């Protein structure tokens, strides 16, 4: 294996993938603000076009809020089979250049092109060629980040979005990280970013001033990750056969929740997000798990397994709410709720109990 700083990693991220596919297939939607998923009065946005994003419409936003932000927003029903079809086209392009392709979802993937199968030895030129081929063969645009590790490649792919590319070379990496806002660090979510902001950490250079021991005290194992990435260290390899074992989502609330109606409302939003992710990945799950954390950080999980699998969103929502109600009320304020689907089966062999390996 090459030394850490001699790897050539590309992160390719399709631009507003679901929404862009809809605009590609339906020319009348081009240039208009559209939201994939949900309806004008219920549900959650799965994806938004760039025209909609200008109004603050984002994925995971409730449809009602999205419509309020953008009164002219057009809601479009998702077509995951179509998205999977185009995703397979894109993946076939990747595999012409390297076998080391690690899909993160239908619309993004890491590629290790240290020893590329074709093209010039420059990762930058390979990324440029791949983006051009995606455009020519699918009619869609992609953004790319190029660097020597996964963290930097992932962050770099967002710099010149949409339809852009950014390269972080080893000699420029530390300066890039020092000036990078904490909220843009891959792996640091909104809640963690706020905690860091509250103690005066706004940029990578600020994070670098905190020693490893203090970071692990504050954030547990994740503290080690934060300590390394602000120094440009990320030794994770591109894994071509990622096996997804669960799909989940959770939300940490800015204020603790006590009322059952409030908790139910938040759980429904989380359930919508989880089901969209599971549907998008084409997985069938047997087990649903509820996670909740009290204001004092005491954490609990409750699970239920169903045969042959959870076959509808309605069943998933019903069982999720049932798990919450089984607690008989919460004795303290709740700061976090989460749901996870796991124990996957093949979509084509749901009766056989075969574990699923996600295709890109």
Automatic annotation (TrEMBL):
Pfam families the UniProt entry points to: IMS, IMS_C, IMS_HHH
GO cellular component, one term: cytosol
Primary location: cytoplasm
Ranges where the UmuC domain occurs: 9-189
Residues that bind Mg(2+): 13, 107
Co-factor: note: Binds 2 magnesium ions per subunit.
Top-rank lineage group of the source organism: Bacteria
InterPro entries with a match to the protein in the record: DNA/RNA_pol_sf (IPR043502), DNA_pol_Y-fam_lit_finger_sf (IPR036775), DNA_pol_Y-fam_little_finger (IPR017961), DNA_polymerase-Y (IPR050116), DNApol_IV (IPR022880), PolY_HhH_motif (IPR024728), Rev_trsase/Diguanyl_cyclase (IPR043128), UmuC (IPR001126)
GO terms, molecular function: damaged DNA binding; DNA-directed DNA polymerase activity; magnesium ion binding
Cleavable signal peptide: none
Location of the protein in the cell: Cytoplasm
Active site residues of this protein: 108
Quaternary organization: Monomer.
Protein name: DNA polymerase IV
Gene name, Swiss-Prot/TrEMBL: dinB
